[in-house]
Fold these 2 entries.
Entry 1:
Amino acid sequence: MTFSADAYFAEVMGEFEASPRASAIHFSRRSILKLSGAAGAGLILAFTLGPVTEAAAAAMSAKDFAPNAFLRVSPDGSILIYAHRPEIGQGIKTAVPLIVAEEMDAAWADVKVEQAPINTALYGRQSAGGSTSIPTSWDQLRQAGAAARSMLITAAAKKWGVPVSECTTADSAVAHAASKRQLRYGELALAAAALPVPDVKTLTLKTRAQYRLLGNRFTGVDNLKVVTGQPLFGIDQAMPGMLYAVYEKCPAVGGKVISANLDHIKTLPGVKDAFILEGNGVTSDVMPGVAIVADSTWNAFKAKAALQVNWDESKASKDSWTKLQAEAKKIAKQAGAENITKSGDVDAALKGAAKTLEAFYSYPFVPHATLEPQNTTAWFKGDSIELWAPTQTPERAITQVAKLLNLPENRVTLNQTRAGGGFGRRLVNDPCCEAAVIAQRVNAPVKLTWTREDDMRHDFYRPGGFHQFTAGLDAAGKLVGWKVHFITFSSDGKTPVAGGNIPAAEFPLPLVAHGELTQSMLPLMTPCGAWRAPRSNAIAFATQSFIHELAVAAGRDHLEFLLEILGEPRHIPPATSAALNTGRAAAVIKLAAEKAGWGKPLPQGHGLGLAFYFSHAGHFAEVAEVSVDAQKRVTIHNVVMAGDIGPIINMSGAENQCQGGIIDGLSTMMNLQVGIENGRVIEGNFTEYPILRINKAPPKIEVHFIQSDNTPTGVGEPALPPVAPAIANAIFAASGIRVRSLPLRNEGLTV
Amino acid sequence: MFKVNGTEHSLDGIDPATPLLWVLRDTLGLVGAKYGCGIAQCGACTVQLNGVPIRACSTPISAIDGQSITTIEGLAAPDGKLHALQQAWIDYDVAQCGYCQAGQLMSAAALLKDKPAPTDADIDQAMAGHICRCGTYTRIRQAIYAAAKGGVA
Ligand code: FES
Ligand code: FES
């Protein structure tokens, strides 16, 4: 029996990976449509943000089309732009409208942003993940803005009877310099609305040098609401008559309910109902458990604490992290069961090497631990259901709920709320599905809230993993052979668990003449998933630490050794802006090194560590300065980062993501792990899962970008992977202690 | 009887053991204070009791009988003018997901009242009870310094 969500993740992540990052989308004229709103409504443009589908075109031309995907210039001068992707803290709700506003030359102060309804026919994909939201919408957003600008400038030129070429736009106004005339966009909205929409092919998009908004610093559009405590998040939803639910699942995944003390639970204060759900046995939908519905969150939590369930664990997980680690160590030195990639003759290369080096690296399972625990509010109304959910994949939630409740998809309405952190956890809609199934039994709106312990123990974890490396150096200290045995997990014996695969092109394999990557999979039932920079977040630690080990063994400077591996500037196939480019890589490495003062004299006991990683189409290098005292206490003095993700949309947002990613990476490498025994995740709350706090955070995190004309790519993830190896390498430089296993606290190192 | 942001509320009919957090969120509809851990570990639920930051998730409602609570909804002046920290939080674009920030602000506000010119160590001490899962610590520190410099109303 498999109840794994791996297939679900394969689909979700496959979708992200297949997302066009370069300008590969072909536009039809119909990708932008003018809407005739109510008389006097002003200029309303609708545009699709996905590849233009038949459905989108149909939706847009339908007579009764409700203007959803649009930007609107109102006669009062306000400009409304809808943000179509979930805001999970990555800043997308600010970045997307900025792109539109830039091309239309709108004054940012005039722009109002609203969260778009979920309607994929109109907006294309509305999920947030894989750092793909910006690259997949870049061209459409710019064209929508440019089309609006073109209509507004044409309207002004007509009014004045001057050629369009004599007019200019800036700050929500068209100007005619020769006659010193100016009209605000609001004043032109009605006239512009009467004009035909220009063919997108005739639109000229701005060059980077012409940007007025992009690249500057903008505060998030919801920040006022955030700092005044307005109800923004899923967990904040409330409505008259709403009830509060909790859901208890088997602590070992796969267990079923035999019986529970429901009669007693129903007598507890405030409890309205308690019932067993069989679920459909899929972790990404609904697993078996006991639901309790009460008149307040607290009464529901209290009743949950008094709940006693007799579980049938005959088919449940018996996973043991201790045993899995021992097993991995045992097989590490054998060749892997499966060959992932092979180039040249690695065994001969290693035999002929002047020096060979071996090392075994490992890292543990980690949960996402979003600060807002999983939750969803659902209201079942007989033949339809309405949901309020902090999800990263709203359209999938609709499909899943429709299936579970046997409703047509158009009877499922999902209201996208802000999410208190995502990190990949909310790519899965299990809380949404549970809430829907519970709501079906309750004659009222019901908010399902997971306790922190539920959240930590019923996650889709970043899988642990193991890398056995062997590499050879020639007499000149040059890397001549690279061999890895990667040990991961599988729920079906055929494919690795979600987030536990390794690509054949894993760094530095495409760059070495003699390389080999083999893989073994240990059986696992614990659910795994996508965790901020899936697989890269862990692989980077192993690979980039081992490269440093090799540089040390060769008696060479790490920076120079790394640049030598990269070699001449070139694209590693496929040659798109989404692929590794050794030139862009070398540039960020050199910049980070320079800004960190690589090679400078350091105070006694300090060390610098360097690491590079390419993920999510972003080239990132980081240099950490640390010191280690006699008690093995690590102090992080500074982290310097250099990244290349094309042009920057919102400098403030991009820096925030990078600094956050670096702190996340540091927190995780130093302290974080969950143990699994008898199928149960041990840690339940922040006492056992000590996320880094302000007093241990580096006082300085310097963020530098190399901006280019490549299509901008996402910044939510790629800053994270290089942190762990940069710090591990710095610890070695400072103290001679080489860490090959995470988290560092297991090795007696504290921060 | 207890006061929240200046308004009196009755405790009648509420189980005295109920944590303040759930009275605020579920009974009074003030959802600015957040649930993050329920065991006084993350600070997301922080409000002020007579000006002192407390963890609402671990404070039974009975303990605040006759006392006065300020939540994030009451941090700005009655005329709507933002507290210097709220303004600094916006100016420095501190939030990522924003979930922890109401709690962070309530502790920061208490800190500045106590120490109008805090040092790094003061900030560490006052703010270490909070977890920001998104890692906005660099900006929290910056924004506290900025608000301190600008003077707190
Ligand atoms: S919810 Fe109160 S401290 Fe975490
Ligand atoms: S901003 Fe997300 S938890 Fe702090």
Entry 2:
Amino acid sequence: MNIVVCVKQVPDTWSERTLRASDNTLDRDAADAVINELDEYAVEEGLRLAEAHGGEVTILSMGPERAAEAIRKALSMGADKAVHLLDDGLAGSDALGTSAAIAQALRRIGFDLVICGSESTDARTGVLPAMLAERLGVPQLTLASKVEIDGDAITVHRLAEYGYDTVAATLPAVLSVVEKINEPRYPSFKGIMAAKKKPVETLGLADLGIDPAQVGAAGAATEVLSFARRPPKQAGTIVTDDGDGGIKAADFLAERKFI
Amino acid sequence: MTEILVLADHAGESVKKVTFELVTLARRFGEPAVAWAGAGAQAAQARLAEFGAAKVYAAEGPEFDDYVVAPKAELLAELARRAAPAAVLVPGTPEGREVAGRLAVKTGWGLLTDVTGLRDEFVADQPIFGGAINVTSRVRTGTPIIAVRPNAITPEPAPGQAVIEPVAVTVSDAAKLARVTGRVVQERSARPELTEASVVVSAGRGVGSAENMALIERLADRLGAAVGASRAVTDAGWYPHQFQVGQTGKTVSPQLYVAIGISGAIQHRAGMQTSKTIMVVNKDPEAPIFELADFGVVGDLFKVVPQLIEEIEKRSG
Ligand SMILES: Cc1cc2nc3c(=O)[nH]c(=O)nc-3n(C[C@H](O)[C@H](O)[C@H](O)COP(=O)(O)OP(=O)(O)OC[C@H]3O[C@@H](n4cnc5c(N)ncnc54)[C@H](O)[C@@H]3O)c2cc1C
């Protein structure tokens, strides 16, 4: 089975994240960069499926030079090879442009199963997997908390407001996973060493025959007009419980008319 | 007047609150026309009219429930082609966003997600990075497709006709690739739905066990609140996963959020930071959740919470 896992490098949610005043895009230099947490679960699921059913796991990442770090992390977990979608013309792409470029790369690589994390911690749009399924004309198996494959039949549990749906389809397909699905492995020392020798192919817009007008900031169908740091919250009242903490809490709720 | 197309979120004939929020928002820009996928439009008509819906495009048919997301996107694309609305509003739920994503690909129109308000010309307010930064943005290509965060808009009644216009849409085979074979309802409670509730009482690892969640539920019921939980609690199996609040759970912005025995990890904050008022009970004065608190009690939740419940009962007579 040919499995492609999409990973994104994102600013660490623990570091101070901000936008750049010059073009209202993410200031990637200001923050520590890590692999998007949910994408680690996607890599893990890809590895498990390949271990169980045979096959190869390819990492696909679109991003600047530095995204190579996220690619290495995924390779050190055990993926076989990687494709880095790298082109200055991609900078500032919105979800439509990003999905167009990634879909084109996926067509080029070929796949039985594409696995994504269900959303990234920076943009949090949660739309990319559905967009990929739409563009590629394959089943959308998103928000999966469980996956089973039998031949070319695939079944997932899709998280829903009330619990979950069971969903069935035939491969090839696009899968997105939630963090309930597994526990990602830590790269072993051996894995980290091996990752250094694994092949990473770099592809640009020209290689993929993507029209530069369709992607990047120029091709984006949306734009950020302005941004402002949320005014810092006024420090609240903190009391220490001396046997009357519950009463004071009730006073607060009454004062704010919640009771 | 131009139409604003609104995708209804509903379970059968029961309309989700976010639908009324979208219709309320739509009224400012044009005539709200509700796109209703699946059965139940007739029964929901009166409710939709109460919030000022002008029209309801009712597309009956089992496909909308039987296949994942794609049929709804086809319906919206078809309605948008016929009615040429000024904007398309969808619920900012996981499924609503996916419908919007597919619609954006079909039409090439720009999509904004997690929108909490709209200004003139459909300029959108979006909180990003867990609410640390507010962004204004707009769609510059095509008709704006806007996914609105549930509970960000206050639904306001206004008279409407909600004229039902049945639409026949043939769902293509391409939209029937992922088939729903079963529906598993894990828990229903009489409490308000988490993303809709105006008060949420959430518990973290500090509650210590599944049994102790009863204490949290008691407080929630005194406040007419929904119960939420941190991932530590859902991972431990103390409370079902669908009640998880945070980055990989639900995003809530209630009038009041009560965090009990929750440390305030960044992934938890991402789901509750925009709550209007935040109250905290935690025994560790250094817990980062206190940074968000309008009111906090440093103390043992097993002492503070029972006293709070008792006090609320006393005061409500
Ligand atoms: C990919 C990923 C996604 C995640 N998504 C989410 C998410 O969606 N939601 C989420 O919540 N987390 C999420 N997390 C986990 C998150 O990082 C934290 O681990 C989690 O939120 C911690 O839960 P907690 O605050 O209940 O537990 P802890 O951090 O263990 O905090 C427990 C708190 O309870 C207090 N306490 C203990 N006993 C008492 C007592 N008797 N009285 C009063 N206070 C007491 C302690 O002082 C402490 O502050 C995610 C993590 C990852 C890696």
